Request: fold
Amino acid sequence: MSMTRSLSILADLIGHPTVTRQTNLALIEHVRAMLAAQGIASTLVFDETGTKANLFASTGPADVPGVVLSGHTDVVPVDGQAWSLEPFTLTQRDGRLYGRGSADMKGFIACAVHAMMEASSLRLKRPLQLALSYDEEIGCVGVRRLLDLLEVAPVRPYLCIVGEPTMMRLATGHKGKTALHATCHGREGHSAQAPFTVNALHLGCDLVNEVRQLQASISRQGGRDEAYDVPYTTLHVGKFNGGVALNIVPNRCEIDFEIRNIAHDDPHALVDVLKAAASRITAQAQTVVPEARVEIVEVNSYPGLDTSRTQDAVDFVRSFHPEDEVLKLAFGTEGGLFTARLGVPVVVCGPGSITQAHKPDEFVEAAQLDQCDAFLAKLLGQLQAS
Ligand SMILES: [Zn+2]
Reply:
């Protein structure tokens, strides 16, 4: 297999182990240097510790709204996963390119960096821009600082293409996500005298029951969007911790749960419903012990994406990437934040499949990388013409 430019960039990117808990600065510096060699300047936006950064770069006329290629540089950990290959080295085998982040989403970033370098020698009428973020995998955290900057820029982008893996199909929507944490406080006691005190696990069960009742009512009579596999807002409890020994009434219980909402539903209104339920559970428990309570805090939230299919910007993409069916995705992306903060239309389109992401022996097909290169070459053609 011969090495295309994008493939060789991908090999470099995979070689930087940018697991979310680690720094991404070496990767960012590497991309900055590649762009600088083509005369493209980059702006870096650091996190509060200075160990991670977003990168934004633009090539073409400065006073015209551009097309942003957006990707996250962080990858999920490999801990506890049975990899048969070295995760942070690109391995080519049987038309597949293996390595952590190959599908999610360094394959796209490699093609995007390549397209930026190509664009630097073209006469663009509309600029091509690159936005790389950190800390996406823990709830689209890092990109928010980059959006602070873009929000006050004199010209906002025309379109943002988020290159999460869609097998190069065009997607215009995904659900929003709100991560929540509940702490239930009871009072310890001898289990033989359990009714004299408050069992924190029992409080937790009452809250989980409320979560399930809310889900049942939403699935029966809530809003629907049939473009999704699960066509309504979902609630789910992911973690439930508490208790020390069978003969001790537990005094504390911790619960992690989430809401994944369709555009029709306001997640904050649903959080309010659950907080009201927590108040009722608390009031009941405090008739037994005064310090008993259930507290809910919002850990993290990002908005859903629901780009109208009749947007000019969507037609613009379809003019060179004809897709009859436009998808909605089961997983979230940074795209919802681009729309919410900048009012920019967003499509999601990138190489590889989400079913190959976050797993041992993650891969992207070499043919997908080629398709992404071809897609971006057609985009460059449009940016010269438009
Ligand atoms: Zn991703």
